[in-house]
Amino acid sequence: MSSAVPLPLCKLPFLALSAVTAHLKTMDIFTLLATSKNAQRLVSQSMRNFDIWKTKMKEKCFRLYIVASADHIKISMADRMFYIGNNIGKFRDKISYIFKCVKVYRYDIEVNHRREEDVRQILNILRSVRYCTISRMSYTNQRISGETFQLFARLGSWRSSLHVNVTNPHYTRVHLGDLNYTKIILNGINISNQELNEFIGRYDGGCSRKSYIEAKGMSSILVKSEILKYIKAREIKDGSVSKFHVTKNCRTRDINLEVFIGEHCVQLQNNSCSDRFF
């Protein structure tokens, strides 16, 4: 039994291609156009009411998914794969085309052991093409630099989550107050007692939404007395776990911050409101 052979649409005569595109679904046409500039030229010329189709596509909103692994980059949207390869230039072209044709309202980025230089290039491409909000930023690598952290900070929003996992625990310049995410989970990033003390001291809840920060897997040792120095905190026992409640008067409301401090981990949760997005 012979296997199915794909139909080379762009090699069809003009009238045949026009007849085929007339029966394709909207996303099928968009996927075909995204394959190459030659496909864009041929389909746009053969398709009836192409300008009307373009207008309708620009009214649609999509969520974009980007995965950057050690040896390839993937772009997917609406359960369709639009790019898989390892060329930053082609990635830029594909992203530019997608953003030109449709509204991308949010995107998820997953990085798995990709070179940091490439990661920064990918993020800067997204920033330069068009601004939109990161929904979830996930980063796994041996290390992370302060420069990459600062780029993460610029791309976050009050409804975003940031997950950073490094396999070689180390110190880097982490300013928690600059990370504009609702949920932050850091694994293997050593944060100093002073940095945590300053963050809790300045904490104002950001927006009025619930926020959660967790830093674990540190090789450094955290000291409760140093972290809570000059901060009014009430200790509460929850079984064998000791937590601290910090109440702060910020703007027009009270902030209720729950803090758990272990030897190599810390959790901070704003319990001031019940909204939950994760």
TrEMBL record:
Q: Respond yes or no to whether keyword Lipid metabolism is given for this record.
A: no
Keyword terms of this UniProt record: Signal
UniProt signal peptide: 1-22
Q: Describe the location of the F-box domain by residue ranges.
A: 6-56
Domain of life of the organism in this record?
Eukaryota
PROSITE patterns xref list: FBOX
Keyword tRNA processing among UniProt keywords = no
Q: List the InterPro entries.
A: F-box_dom (IPR001810), Zygotic_Embryogenesis-Asso (IPR053222)
PANTHER family hit by this protein:
CYCLIN-RELATED F-BOX FAMILY (PTHR22899), F-BOX ASSOCIATED DOMAIN-CONTAINING PROTEIN-RELATED (PTHR22899:SF0)
Which named protein is this?
A: F-box domain-containing protein
User: Which organism was this protein described from?
Assistant: Caenorhabditis elegans
